[in-house]
Amino acid sequence: MSDKGFSEKDEIFSKVLRAGRRTYFFDVRGTKAGDYYLTITESKKFTHDDGSYHYKKHKIYLYKEDFTAFTEILEEMTDYVIDQKGEEVISERHQKDFKKEGFSENDSEEGEIVSTEKFTDISFDDI
Fold this sequence. Notes:
By secondary structure, the chain is an alpha+beta fold.
């Protein structure tokens, strides 16, 4: 710990962006030396067939000496995408009436067929 009482994992300031199955965490953290850096974490939820789930996380550490270049490139890239394709999302998957061929609304986003049968569904042939 430094004189200011910060450990390397201390969160100083945080923001969260929820975007469908993805969540982005923006955290300012403190170093042992008492300086700050930024972590950006993408967390994506995956659901198993049994209903349980897990998250996959990817993290970027961004230090002050890289802020200007990172911001400039990020702005250049986002401007390019908007200039080339506009702000409207054109992916079929993002359309309200999108139905993937061969799959129903009960299918997972990963392309797996999800069973609609529940443990309470009884076939009279079984009795």
